[in-house]
Structures are given as C-alpha cells and as structure tokens.
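I am still learning, so would you mind making up any protein sequence you like and the tokens describing how it folds?
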Amino acid sequence: MPELPEMENYKRTLARAIQSRIVTNVEVNREKTVGVSAEEFARRVEGQRIVQIERRAKHIIFTLSSGDVLLLHLMLGGWMFYGQASERPDHQCQVVLSFGQDNLYFLGLRLGYLHLLTGNELTETLSKLGPEPFDPMLTPTSFHTLLTKTRGTLKTKLVNQHLIAGIGNCYSDEMCFAAGILPLSSTSSLEADDTTRLYHAMRRVLQDAIVAGGYMESPFASSDLLTGGYNDQCLVYDRGGEPCRSCGQPVVRAEHGGRKVFYCSHCQH
C-alpha cells in the first residue's frame, strides 16, 4: 500500500502535470469509487480547474475551482498513470480525468477511492488523523508521549493513522531497523533515548524515500524514471530470509496483527 513517500512523490508529480489545468472530460466506470453517481460526479468536476494539489497522510487532495475537492486514497493495489489515449494502461480504469489530450488514469481502486466532497466534508473526514511526521509541532518529546501513553507494540503504534499519519508496513520496519529497535517491542519498555533515536530515524528514512521516489514500481508516466527508486534501498522490508546488509544474519519475517513484519534479530533490540 502506498505510504507517505509514495503519495508525496505523486503530489509533486501531479502538481507539475495538472495543477491549474481544466478538467475537460470525466469517465467513471465504478460509481462506488467516487462516492456519488457518475452523473453527479461529471456535473461537478467537468469544466473545473485544479487549483491546488496537497497531501495529507496517505491521501491526495485535489481542490477544484468550485471549492469541491477530490480525496484520493489508493489503498492496496491502487495507482495512477498520466498520458495520452495511445498510452492507456491495459488495466481496468475506475476513473479517468482528461485535460485536453492528456489523461489521468486511476487504476486498481477496488479498495481505494476518489471521493467527491465539499470542503466541510473533507475537514470532517481528515479530522481524526494524527500529526504528520514532519510537522514542526511533532517534537522528540511529543513523539515519545504519542508512542508510550498507552500499551501496545511499536509496530502497531507506528502504523496507527490516528497517532502518526502516513506511515505503513514498509517504512515502520525500515525506521525501526535504522533506529536499532525491534518493531515488536512493547512501547512501555521504550525509554526517551529510544524514541528520540526512532524519531530521527523516521524523518531520515522518509526523506530518503521521498527523494528516491518511494518503493512503488508502477511508473506515473512513460517518462517517469523516479518512481520506485527506493525499492532497492529497503534494508529489511520484504527481504525475509535474505542476509542483513549490516551483519549478514537472515532477516526475520513475522506476522503481527495481520501485518507482515521484517527485522534483524541481531541488529535490533
């Protein structure tokens, strides 16, 4: 599932491609994806200008000139492709937004969505999300409090969007490895030194992943050479049984709460 770095990469790329452009045509092949009827979606979106593109947690927010917004959450399997009709991917497209000859294809949104909302509906929908990892108000001290104020495992806390927004399976494991902490540790056992180390590892790992284009492998456009660049830089995620690049011991793959967890039992404590 795309996480903060992947969605930040999408946000920046989308801003360059379609911000300030007018939606000239809409194609809806699955009404559940947009949350309203296909007719209403087309009526409220066609002819509107994309005035701003933002990211919040794992969401992309497209603000229209009318004041309405499109809220995108790709969930598991969702992705986007931008190109002309001759480049249309050979996959089922749930929604297509056209900008003249250029098209933005939304694919794999069986679990994800591109909901059409009013500004007030957007505020309500996002109101329960926790702070962003790069929020200036999120300090090492407040980060420690978020993780340790209730019982639970570190992995569970890091992927809880109500506590910290934007982190999922991949980067929770990568930042725990960078900090030398087992992701299955009880947060009640963590000292301030541990969470401070994890705080800095979180920001470093996420920033590195943003610069490298995240770990998703599906390109945004035929000319896209950035997306997926972080995939080969992952040190533990999805590398179960492979030798740890730091110590050579096999990376452990485990299950916890229905999620995959990857770590090195030698390097992490």
Q: What stands out?
A: Helices lie at 4-18, 31-34, 38-45, 119-126, 140-148, 154-158, 169-179, 192-212. The beta strands are 25-28, 50-56, 59-64, 69-73, 79-83, 93-99, 102-107, 113-117, 252-256, 259-263. The CA atoms of residues 240 and 251 lie 5 Å apart.
